[in-house]
Amino acid sequence: MKKIIIVLFLFAQYINAADKVRNYDEQINFIFYLSNKFKVTEIGTISYPNNNYKLYKITYGIPNKNNKKNYLFISGVHGNEIAPIYGMKEFIQYLDSIKIINDIKIDFIYILNPYGFEYNVRHNGNGIDLNRDFINFETYEIKYFINNTKEEKYSGMYDFHEHSATTGFLLYYYSNKNKRLANNILEILQNNNIPLENDYVDAVLKTKNGAIFVPFYAKLYFMNINKQATSGLFFDKINVKEVFVFETPRNMEMAKRIKIVDILLKYLVGI
Ligand SMILES: [Zn+2]
Predict the structure, then answer these.
(1) What's the CA-to-centroid distance between 77 and ligand 1, angstroms?
(2) Measured on CA atoms in the order 209, 225, 219, 262, is the torsion positive or negative?
(3) Residue 162 CA, ligand 1 centroid: distance in Å
(4) I need a surface site. Which of 28, 99, 139, 181 has the fewest CB within 10 A?
């Protein structure tokens, strides 16, 4: 009996090891070698039977009430959407290599879903889609994230995702006031020969020239009838002025997707 249990245990270990395709600790190691332009804060530990993950918030710039730009950049909510994870790392290291930019503070939530990142899955270690949990806050990933960002009066929230539905780039925006910014972003991408999505339909919302506008009725539907909320719906609801969710196409080659993330981040911080 004992032997059978040991064999089963070893087999389970083998299955887990076989599924793991990336290493979270290795991927985030660079954050501990950033200069004093950055502050790294541990925000919580996520525990699964075979894995423990520490989550971090990486803050750039000097927190100051007068900062015109107080941004939140998120990557890795879905573990199998990885170009933003690579692109954001390059961007953070680039920021560290240049003169400090005054008048801006950025919180990076870099890889919110470490389990998904390591096992290349959309969901967290309990099979939950974190980007539907911005209403009930049932997962520790989202709980820690919200607890460590809710006091910030962000002027902008940008969540970097990827989609596999089609071949073009698309973004979500939630307020008519951001239409101009949405158009500016899309224009810059077009100037860089990035194809924009035109046909993809999310529930009832159709993509037009790379943009999905989420109107009031859709917000009501998602949050009050469907009882699900994404990062975009949540930060829009708490009145963050600029709320965008970006989706690079997974069908595109990796280098090009990383380039899109780089173009977006540099444009948003004005460099
Ligand atoms: Zn996603």
Answers:
(1) 6
(2) negative
(3) 5
(4) 99
Domain membership of residue 5 (yes or no) is no
Which one is predicted more confidently, 13 or 237?
237
Task: Give residue 80 CA to ligand 1 midpoint distance, Å.
Answer: 8
Within a domain: residue 14?
A: no
30-50 pLDDT per residue, tens: 999 999 999 999 999 999 999
Distance from Cα 117 to the centre of ligand 1, integer Å: 12
- Tokens 């809710």, residue? 150
- With a CB cutoff of 8 Å and minimum separation 6, the contacts of 43 are 55, 56, 57, 144, 145, 147, 148
How high is the pLDDT of residue 111? 98
- What distance in angstroms lies between residue 78's CA and the mean position of ligand 1's atoms? 5
How far apart, in whole angstroms, are the C-alpha atoms of residue 176 and residue 30?
38
d(CA 161, ligand 1 centre) in Å = 4
- Angle (CA) 102-59-250 rounded to 5° is 105
Number of domains in the chain: 1
Average pLDDT, the chain: 92
Q: What is the pLDDT of residues 173-201, one digit of tens each?
A: 999 999 999 999 999 999 999 999 998 99
Domain span at residue 265?
21-269
The C-alpha angle 96, 115, 51, rounded to 5 degrees, equals 105
CA 10–ligand 1 middle distance (angstroms): 33
pTM of the model: 0.92
The CATH number linked to 195 is 3.40.630.10
The alpha carbon of 65 and the centre of ligand 1 are apart by a number of angstroms equal to: 32
